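Inverse folding, one chain.
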C-alpha cells in the first residue's frame, strides 16, 4: 500500500484507532462500516482502491444516508432519521469541502459553454466534464437537476 495513493484509507484507519482509544462507539461503528465497504470493493474487484475510488464510495454512502433520512422522515421515524444523520456527518468528515451553490452554478456554466451543449441530448457531455469536479464535493443528483433546468 503506497501512502501517496491511499492517504485517505490510512487516515480512516488511524481515526479508527483513535476512536477505539477514546471509546467513541458511534464513530467507531461508522468507521468500521466505511472500512468494510472499502474492503468489500477491493475483494470484489481484486484491486486496491485509490483515494478517488474511496471518495466515490464515501459519496455513495452519504447519498444512501440522505435517501434513508428522507424515507424515515416521511414515515415519521425521527429516531432512525437521527441515527442516519449522525452517520452521514461522520462520513462527510472524509469528503472534501462541499461546494457552494454559486460554485456549482459556475462549474455548470463553464461545462455547458465548453461543450457547446444546446439541449437535453447533450447532457451526457456536460455530466462527463462535471462528474470528476463534483465527486464528493456536491450532490450529483441535485447538480443534474440544475443542468436539466439550464439545458431545457
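Residues assigned per position:
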Amino acid at each position: 500500500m503506497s501512502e501517496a495513493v491511499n492517504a485517505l484509507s490510512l487516515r480512516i484507519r488511524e481515526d479508527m484507532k483513535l476512536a477505539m482509544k477514546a471509546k467513541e462507539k458511534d464513530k467507531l461503528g461508522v468507521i468500521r462500516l466505511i472500512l468494510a465497504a472499502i474492503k468489500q470493493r477491493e475483494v470484489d474487484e481484486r484491486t486496491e482502491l485509490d483515494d478517488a475510488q474511496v471518495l466515490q464510495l464515501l459519496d455513495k454512502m452519504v447519498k444512501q444516508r440522505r435517501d434513508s433520512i428522507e424515507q424515515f422522515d416521511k414515515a415519521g421515524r425521527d429516531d432512525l432519521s437521527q441515527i442516519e444523520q449522525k452517520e452521514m456527518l461522520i462520513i462527510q468528515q472524509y469528503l472534501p469541502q462541499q461546494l457552494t451553490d454559486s460554485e456549482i452554478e459556475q462549474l455548470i456554466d463553464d461545462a455547458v459553454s465548453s461543450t457547446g451543449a444546446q439541449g437535453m441530448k447533450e447532457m451526457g457531455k456536460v455530466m462527463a466534464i462535471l462528474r470528476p469536479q463534483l465527486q464528493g464535493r456536491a450532490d450529483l443528483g441535485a447538480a443534474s437537476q440544475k443542468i436539466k433546468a439550464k439545458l431545457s
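The CA atoms of residues 70 and 81 lie 8 Å apart. The chain has seven helices and no strands.
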